[in-house]
Amino acid sequence: SFIATADRQFGPITTIKKGSKIVQKIPWTAFKFNDGDWLRVDLCVDILADANRYQQTFSSDRIPTLHRVIPALEGLLARWDCKLKNAKYLIYHPAVSCGIDKLSKYYLKLDNTPVYVLALLLHPYYKMTYIGLKWGGKAEQDKEIADGFPDAKNW
Q1: For the segment 87-138, what is each residue's pLDDT rounded down to a tens digit?
Q2: Who contacts 54 (Cβ-Cβ below 8 Å, separation ≥6)?
Q3: Taking phi first (over 0 means left), then psi (-120 to 50 degrees means alpha), and beta for anything else, what does residue 137 get?
Q4: Spatial contact of 144 and 154, defined as CB atoms under 8 Å apart
Q5: Which residues pair with 24 in a beta bridge?
Q6: What is the rounded distance in angstroms from the CA atom of residue 73 to the CA atom of residue 71?
Q7: pLDDT digits (tens, 9 = 90+) for 50-87
Q8: Whose C-alpha in 29, 122, 137, 143 is 20 to 30 A from the C-alpha of 95?
Q9: CB of 142 closer than 8 Å to CB of 154
């Protein structure tokens, strides 16, 4: 394998010194991944792939993409929320939770920036359909007010 060959050909990948005295030589083989390590890498790649997929919805220099901000943030939040509930991703729950908190922070800021909602309204495909399906209307507003949210909006 590469790692065994590297140890033989090049010696240790790093050497730890204390002053001028060598304390420890760390071989390449110390960094060899086992099956569990590769599983954790795959899970991490899966989580990051979600973010990449939604980020790509904004990658265009030919068409406007502002109308995609809200659906993309909601989609990514939903995907990561599913991962947070899945025991398979338990080792990454703290990181996913921090990611959700950060996305939520910016998602909530959209309430104070009407241009994103306006972009949805002006889009020929979305118009009010997306807003009505995802956020509701008068009935949802009344329920939120009854539940103690006096500033609920009728989208």
Answers
A1: 999 999 999 999 999 999 998 888 778 887 788 778 777 777 777 777 778 8
A2: 72, 73, 75, 76
A3: beta
A4: no
A5: 16
A6: 6
A7: 999 998 887 777 877 788 888 889 999 999 999 999 99
A8: 29
A9: no
- The residue whose two tokens read 């899966």 is 46
Distance CA 98, CA 53 (A): 19
For residue 31, give every residue at least 6 positions away whose Cβ sits within 8 Å of its Cβ, in sequence order, or none.
Answer: 3, 13
Note the helical H segments in the chain: 2-10, 35-56, 69-85, 93-109, 115-122, 127-135, 138-146
pTM of the model: 0.68
Burial of 85 (0-12, 13-18, 19+ CB in 10 A): exposed
d(CA 71, CA 118): 13
